[in-house]
């Protein structure tokens, strides 16, 4: 049984949205993937403003931006741990909760892949995405980043790459202004000026920054490629997690995916149809897909139960 059939069986019979699964020019064959996680968590992607703010200025220069070594001290920000717990986000002092165990299992494959470099994009560049909005990709990206940041031998850079609708600062309860988009547009800006060190393990955040109408072009620019190379190579023990836009909702997602070493697809149980998932996977290079995470699913008989919620992996 293929992964699509396995996931479809788990998702159950539901109405299909009006999406064309035969997108011209995309991969029609679906790879055999591992379902690397099953999480019964609450998605923390919230409704945000439908219109992005316009940023007045010139687009980034065509030539790659020379990323200078960080010469500034990155500020450490203390987040409200109680706020994170209320959203089912992992915290350093958490008990051995089912969600924490789920993400421990998920991260093991990611770290194993990262320790085995390939000839393509660096395997420590990890993108978390979904087919459509609301499936819980931000919830999974934040939890995965925190889980890895609590490892003894790794540090994590969490990048809010859903640049049209950034939500990680809201999840963490932070007020930030500048971030990735500003870094790509302003050659005078240093990476350290837009980073926020979080007081959870070895976790650092790169916010999305100022919304820009040419975000797709900025993510595809030479400056972005140079930035990714610099982030991936500077610290060999660093895993960079990107919270990406949904693949079927924003053009930025496919551009970002082309530069990643690993891709995790978040699938909402009982909502995402087989046709939708197949269409989304068609936008990706099959060799880069690390696997699927089934989110918001009851798992009776697959794992263990805690506090009335089912959790497990398969």
- Enter the CATH topology name: Rossmann fold
Overall number of strands: 11
Query: What's the order of the H and E elements?
Result: HEEHHEHEHHEEHHEHEHEEE
- Structural class comes to alpha/beta
- Report Rg: 19 Å
Residue share in β-strands: 15-25%
Q: Please describe the biggest sheet, giving its number of strands, its sense, and whether it closes into a barrel.
A: 9 strands, mixed
CATH H-tier superfamily = P-loop containing nucleotide triphosphate hydrolases
Strands side by side in the biggest sheet: 1-9-8-3-7-4-6-5-2
What is the overall number of helices?
A: 10
Note down, in words, how this protein is organized.
The longest helix has 17 residues, at 98-114. This protein has one domain (3-15, 34-43, 65-311): P-loop containing nucleotide triphosphate hydrolases (Rossmann fold). Strand 8 (262-268), helix 10 (274-281) and strand 9 form a beta-alpha-beta unit. The chain is of the alpha/beta class and 314 residues long. Helix content is 28%, strand content 17%.
């Amino acid at each position: 049984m293929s992964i699509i059939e396995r996931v479809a069986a788990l998702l159950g019979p539901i109405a299909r949205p009006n999406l064309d699964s035969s997108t011209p020019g995309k991969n029609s064959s679906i790879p055999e993937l591992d379902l690397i996680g099953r999480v019964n968590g609450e998605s923390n992607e919230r409704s945000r403003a439908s219109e992005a703010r316009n940023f007045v200025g010139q687009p980034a220069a065509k030539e790659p931006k020379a990323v200078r070594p960080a010469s500034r001290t990155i500020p450490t920000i203390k987040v409200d741990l109680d706020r994170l717990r209320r959203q089912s986000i992992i915290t350093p002092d958490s008990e051995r909760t089912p969600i924490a165990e789920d993400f421990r299992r998920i991260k093991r494959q990611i770290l194993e892949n990262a320790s085995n470099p390939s000839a393509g994009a660096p395997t420590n560049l990890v993108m978390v995405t979904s087919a459509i909005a609301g499936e819980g990709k931000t919830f999974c990206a934040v939890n995965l980043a925190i889980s890895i940041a609590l490892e003894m031998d790794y540090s994590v850079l969490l990048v809010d790459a859903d640049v049209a609708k950034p939500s990680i600062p809201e999840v963490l309860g932070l007020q930030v202004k500048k971030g990735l988009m500003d870094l790509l547009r302003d050659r005078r800006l240093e990476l350290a000026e837009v980073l926020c060190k979080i007081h959870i393990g070895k976790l650092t955040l790169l916010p999305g920054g100022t919304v820009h109408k040419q975000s797709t072009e900025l993510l595809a620019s030479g400056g972005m490629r140079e930035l990714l190379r610099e982030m991936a190579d500077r610290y060999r023990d660093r895993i960079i997690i990107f919270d990406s836009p949904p693949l079927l909702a924003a053009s930025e997602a496919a551009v970002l995916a082309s530069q990643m070493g690993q891709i995790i697809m978040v699938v909402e149980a009982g909502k995402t149809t087989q046709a939708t998932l197949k269409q989304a996977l068609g936008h990706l290079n099959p060799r880069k897909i690390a696997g699927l995470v089934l989110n918001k699913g009851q798992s009776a008989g697959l794992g263990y139960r805690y506090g009335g919620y089912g959790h497990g992996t398969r």
